[in-house]
Amino acid sequence: MFLHGTSRINAQGHLEIGGCDVTGLAKEFGTPLYIVDEALVRQRAREFMDAFRKTGLRFQVAYASKAFCVMAMCRLAEEEGMSLDVVSDGELHTALQAGFPADRIHFHGNNKTPEEIQMALDAHIGCFVVDNFVELQLLNALAGDKGKRVNVLLRITPGVEAHTHEYISTGQQDSKFGFDLGNGAAFRAVRQAIALPNLKLLGVHSHIGSQIFEVEGFRMAVEKVAAFAIEVRAKLGETFSVINLGGGFGIRYVEGDTPLPVSQYVQAISDAIISSCTAADFPLPEIWIEPGRSMVGDAGTTLYTVGTSKDIPGVRKYLAVDGGMTDNPRPALYESKYEAILANRANEAPTELVSIAGKACESGDMLIWDLKLPESQPGDLLAVFCTGAYNYAMASNYNRIRRPAVVFVKDGRADLVVARESHEDITRNDLIPERLRKQAVSR
Ligand code: LLP
Question: How many CB atoms lie within 10 A of CB 212?
Fold first, then answer.
């Protein structure tokens, strides 16, 4: 069976996560419910931190909060000694509200607004990852207005793109992000950044993709970035002290997925850095990375209640659950695949092939095609695995469906970390203009 972290099947044949029987969680918190295995998140954090400690390099592991950004998760990342990558005022606000130390926050994004930059300046965050020439000038001006000099990394597109098992090296990458290395934009950006009085250039950032299963793409990126650092030192006399290699470490969503242990990615990155720098007598920079999916993906499970079904003989049987694309848009967006079990009858042998449909008014609202399950009844619980990353984060209120609650489970305890949305939450921001209000009927 496909189980991660502390998940197991207990004597009643129920799925148990973090020592909590999920049938009890369904009763207490309702469904759909996102369940996060806290011990597994902490284990992943420690795998990254420990792997870096072994390299002897100076490092920061910044949790890419876009994968799952709620206050409890920011607390947990801080407790594990991580830094935090944010990409919007909303993520920054969440981190600050959670008391995350501002000097360990890195601000990303290809279109930071002046208001977002000002908010981050006022909060004294640790570093801005500058994405383009417009932002370079804007940040310099806004920092100057506040009498500040801020740390920056420049995001460069190294011309390496990695997807799972494939990686490609392109001369010029067609991407909305970053300064292109191949066409000289990155070099011009460095020259400008050095000249701008309110920016302190720490180094460069590159992110080559997501859900990557091999180290080759990272190695190629390191080589390109290191060659660039060496060129900048030679031509401009500027020595980068930080190289940020982004995120992208893959996880196992389904049986066939074969990600590497975290330590292997870290080892490959560190070996590549050390060999490139040593060969050029370049002082070893501090290495930053930004794992998102690999921190929280397999620690998340979504629990649904099975509702209606529709059997089309000779074609397929649809089984509908009480959530769908509103809590997990990834199958609709990316054709992502997931594994699932009947969580209250986990020991029963599968007897039928079903396809799991959501409840949104849209044919594309399918969670899993062709899943083998025991014959199910309305009221059974379906657990979909590996939903910790980019599920709650990308959830929507399409069809005015309320976003589910999130619980952290650990050692038999379940703590609500996000409450289920209420009907009032759904209409909270709605306003009815005077002319559309119902007139009191005069008698
Ligand atoms: N750093 C930067 C600059 C990024 O753009 C990303 C992800 C990360 C770090 C974290 O990457 P990770 O370790 O999670 O692969 N919504 C998509 C994923 C989009 C990823 C965007 N950037 C999905 O559901 O698969």
Answer: 25
